[in-house]
Design goal:
By secondary structure, the chain is an alpha/beta fold. The protein has 11 helices and 18 strands. The chain is globular and about 70 Å long. The chain starts with 24 loop residues before the first strand and ends in an 18-residue tail after the last strand.
């Protein structure tokens, strides 16, 4: 039976279970996120395929299964689908591997219950703008990934002939910048470039994604790039003051970009469009209007926009620099409301790390200049705890958290049917979560390569206890990571149109 939430629920008697040879792994709990509800569940997993064989919506005792069955009762912890982080910069291959790489980035993901990440096309050298470059990325990733990894392609001026071959090679979507990306090998696109890309991809099962910031016709920040830059022409205050940085990237940057995207949507009306890391509340009405007009547009936001606030950022604390910027606490509440309403559908990390010196932190010999500092927040592996900590203050449930970070993100990248929910026939990607546990973030909890994050020393509620990838436990809070090493797969099957 398919429930209104789109999930399949199977209630089976123990006499309907499959043969003993197929029942070597059984996970159960009094609380599991199944069929869009929090329910008792017993999940049977095939040891050969790593897929879910059966789901029984009660906790079956160990005695219900043959001797030798691998049986785990996690009650009262919560069994959730593994997270699908649809926006991660892993930076490999190339010299920026010093900032992050497949081994460390995916290990950090596994620590946080993330079982699938989708790697962004820029910050690696070369960027993923051709099939040849994708092959180099695949070679770099092989044997290093602790979780499953998919890839986005990039749209840059003049690479339109490479887009369909990248679709055929298995990329999950395409990203472009409407403003300087901050790295010279990934230039931003014009309206003409976007129109060409839309026409090229109009009949393909893919998503065209936008870093939706643009310089309005008149701006005091002319020349300001996304990730690091010279100061604006007319700074509003000291360059180490966060308020100066925030003033240089007003909400108009985002709304102007979204309006530009919507003005071009008619070029390819069937092509799915997507706004990455929406931060400005002023963009929400534009998303609503687009939906009402039948434009195929979705939007994501990030853990940091839902939890951090501009007025709480101290001068010189450049760990908080990202683009678009973290805005005021009142703006944050509008993003939460948009999530609950479904106008913003997904929450991702946008994990964009760098080495500590590039953050210009005063504790590391820098001068705290927000304009010199690299822009990006390191979050991968901490996201579920961050979301749950703040979500509880706003009556958000773990079912909603799973929808925003697993089901909808898997849908965004065309992986439903394999990833994103606890469903019969889908991969047994599982996060075991203790919603009552608390921990203070230390460098030991940062499994990413460079231990720089604004969440350091913050106390979070909710902690990942175990992570399972395709029926195999890859991380345990008590035992660490699986001794056999990385077992993640590269997700390169060509994307299909949804049924």
């Amino acid at each position: 039976m398919i429930t209104p939430g789109g999930f399949a629920r199977l209630d089976l008697s123990i006499y309907e279970l499959t043969t003993p040879q197929e029942l070597s792994t059984v996970l159960c709990s009094s609380r599991a996120v199944v069929s869009g509800t929090l329910t008792p569940a017993t999940i049977l997993i095939s040891p050969t395929t790593g897929k879910i064989l059966r789901i029984h919506t009660s906790v079956l005792p160990r005695s219900s299964f043959p001797s030798g069955t691998q049986y785990h009762d996690y009650s009262p912890l919560v069994i959730m689908p593994g997270l699908v982080d649809a926006h991660v910069h892993l930076n490999e291959p190339g010299w920026r591997t010093e900032w992050e790489g497949f081994e460390t980035g995916t290990k950090a993901a596994a620590f946080g219950g993330v079982t699938t990440v989708i790697d962004m096309p820029l910050n690696a050298i070369p960027p993923t703008t051709t099939v040849e470059n994708l092959e180099l990325k695949k070679q770099a990733a092989e044997g290093q990934c602790w979780v499953d990894v998919g890839f986005y392609g990039g749209v840059i001026p003049g690479n339109q002939d490479h887009l369909i071959p990248l679709v055929e090679a298995g990329v999950r979507g395409f990203k472009c910048f409407l403003i300087d990306s901050g790295v010279e090998e990934f230039p931003c696109v014009s309206a003409e470039d976007v129109s060409i890309a839309m026409k090229t991809l109009s009949k393909s099962p893919t998503t065209l994604m936008f870093h939706a910031e643009m310089l309005p016709p008149l701006s005091l920040s002319l020349g300001d790039s996304v990730l690091h830059s010279d100061p604006p022409l007319a700074p509003a205050g000291p360059l180490e003051s966060y308020s100066t940085f925030l003033a240089s990237r007003p909400p108009a940057f985002e709304t102007y970009a979204i309006e530009e995207i919507l003005s071009l949507a008619h070029v390819a009306p069937e092509l799915q469009l997507h706004i990455v890391h929406l931060s400005a509340a002023e963009g929400i009405p534009l998303v609503r209007k687009a939906r009402e007009c039948g434009i195929k547009l979705t939007a994501e936001t990030c853990f940091h926009y839902l939890t951090l606030a501009a007025e709480e950022i101290e001068d010189g604390d450049t760990r908080h620099k990202c683009c678009p910027p973290i805005r005021e606490g009142t703006n944050r509440e509008f993003l939460w409301d948009a999530l609950k309403e479904g106008l913003v559908e997904t929450v991702v990390s946008d994990h964009s790390p760098c080495t500590p010196d590039l953050k210009m932190l005063k504790d590391n010999g820098g001068d705290g200049d927000f304009f010199k500092a690299w822009g990006g927040i390191s979050t991968v592996g901490l996201g579920l705890s961050i979301l749950w900590t703040e979500g509880q203050k706003r009556d958000v449930s773990l079912v909603q958290c799973a929808e925003w970070t697993s089901y909808k993100t898997a849908k965004q990248v065309g992986l439903l049917g394999k990833k994103g929910a606890l469903e019969v026939g889908w991969d047994a990607d599982i996060c075991v979560f203790d919603p009552e546990a608390e921990f203070t973030v230390t460098t030991n909890d940062m499994k990413f390569k460079n231990k720089v994050t604004p969440y350091e020393n913050k106390t979070l509620k909710g902690k990942v206890v175990e992570t399972w990838l395709r029926g195999n436990k890859i991380y345990s809070a008590s035992e660490g990571f699986q001794k056999s090493g990385p077992s993640g797969a590269l997700l390169l099957e060509k994307r299909r149109f949804p049924n």
